[in-house]
Amino acid sequence: MSCTSCSTSSNGKPGGCQSNGGCSTGGCNRMNTHDWLRNLPMSDFASACKVIEVTFNQGTRKDFFRNPALHNYEKGDLISVEGISGFDVGEVSLTGEIVRLQMKKRNVKEDNPEMKKILRHATDRDIDIWKQNKAREPEAVIRSRAIARQLKLDMKISQVEMQADGRKATFFYIADGRVDFRELIKVYASEFKVKVEMRQIGARQEAGKVGGIGSCGRELCCSTWLTDFKSVNTAAARYQNLSINQTKLSGQCGRLKCCLNYELDTYLDALQHFPDNCDVIQVTKSNAFLVKKDIFKNLMWYTLPDSNKQYPLTIERVIKIKELNQQGIRPDDLEPVEVVSSKTVEKEPEFVELVGQISLKSLDKAADKKRQQNRNQNQQRGQRPQQRQQGGGQQQGGNQQRQQGGGNNQNRPNRNRPRPNNPNRNRGGQQGGNQQRPDKPQQS
User: Fold this and answer.
1) What is the DSSP annotation of 161-185?
2) Low-confidence ranges of the chain (pLDDT < 70)
3) 3-state class of 293 per DSSP?
4) What is the pLDDT of residue 389?
5) N or C: which end of the chain has fewer CB atoms below 10 A?
6) CA-CA distance, 54 to 50, in Å (whole number)?
7) 290, 280 in Cβ contact below 8 A?
8) From CA 150, how far away is CA 183, in angstroms rounded?
9) pLDDT, tens digit, for every residue of 28-73?
């Protein structure tokens, strides 16, 4: 599925997604949920869910609103809802029984009296006012950051969200500790002429609002489907035998990647079969220290202090050595197993010349050919002075014969007249040609 901005335009080129969300989730809104109960028939309309999930600001914020008039709203409809001393415009994201599952997930009661209501379908006037106030948000972010810097507050304004009627603005900020922004609120209220609400968010929430591409090549989980952020520590990387490299384990938010927790339970279940307290085992030569555990091959890798080589041992062998150490016996050898790789060696594919591509070998051949031509030309230039010295006498003799047999140049007939084709005429050299040419009669 895709939205209208992602469809192909009249010129045949795709318009491109205008949001940071993923269209593969059902549209350009982030955090979309597939309504798999949409086509199911309703058995009892009286017990149907009277709450609708509404998304704001392209899915960065979602909330639940009561539908008191029981109007029929479809997914994607723009509706006007109650706001702070005014109204706000949002987009319907979920309707029906699936909303109850989302409310249960977020611990929201369906009979909550503080839940706001849906007013009506958004009119053209509501949409125009909403677009005008949304256009103020980029300028408000720049101005609010400058004001916070002038007041010397240790905080960062991440995003500003304007209400549709322009009466309220929510400022999302990031700070390491508590910030006294009482003076800041007064300045914001007088500068933007709105009711100010300050809301603190974390670095992970900011990355979800900004969006981006992760190291896996896909969109960030926090901007597409991840709603709750669990704590991630370096122990998750140690259990998975990952190197503790801060640059590789950190995401775009500067914190540890949330995906480190995805396979942690699988590793913890597999590590239950490995023995405990086997970090150091004793052999006759010296002590062996545990380096890593391979849960896929059920091997434990040990190293000796006098070498950098790692020895793979089976779980049964490690347990046996540990039992012998408890009895005061040190085995002579670790008895490592031989690890054979089951992967087939892939042959490097030969170069295939495609359209518009050439190989480097062809470039090398062209360079060698040009280099050889330059070398031959240089050799020929060195041989020319010798040829000129050797042929100097012959050329001088030929000139003397021309003067004897040619006569006066002024009495010579016109050279432009046509000459008969003589196949026996010798064109070899100047000397031979001058000897075979007959003497021309002089004009009286």
Assistant:
1) EE-TTSSEEEEEEE-SS----HHHH
2) 1-31, 42-46, 341, 343, 345, 348-363, 384-444
3) strand
4) 56
5) C
6) 13
7) yes
8) 12
9) 566 677 777 777 776 666 677 889 999 998 778 889 999 988 888 8
For the chain, what is the mean pLDDT?
79
Q: What are the DSSP calls for 180-215, one per residue?
A: --HHHHHHHHHHH-SEEEEEE--HHHHHHHH--B-T
Q: With contact defined as beta carbons under 8 Å apart, do 114 and 142 qualify?
A: no
Report the phi/psi class of residue 387: left, alpha or beta, with left for phi > 0 and alpha for psi in -120 to 50. alpha
Burial tier of 28 (Cβ tally within 10 Å: 0-12, 13-18, 19+): buried
CA pair distance 21, 212, nearest whole angstrom: 9
* Pair of tokens at residue 224: 């597409």
C-alpha distance from residue 293 to each of 61, 273, 275, 288, 296 (Å): 43, 11, 11, 14, 9
* Residue the block writes with tokens 């790692």: 310
CA-based nearest residue to 148, from 198, 193, 209: 198
Listed by start position, the domains of the chain span 20-122, 132-207, 230-273, 274-326
Position 360 scores a pLDDT of: 63
Written as one letter, the residue type at 265 is D
Residue (of 337, 321, 340) closest to 329 by Cα position: 321
Residues 429, 433, 437: CA angle, nearest 5 degrees: 175
Q: Which tokens is 282 given?
A: 């004793």
pLDDT value, residue 162: 93
Tokens for 87, please give them.
């109204």
Ramachandran angles phi, psi of 258, nearest 5°: -65, -25
120's tokens: 């009506």
pLDDT of residue 164: 92
Are 19 and 29 a contacting pair, CB within 8 Å? Answer: yes
For domain 132-207, say whether CATH 3.30.300.20 is its number: yes
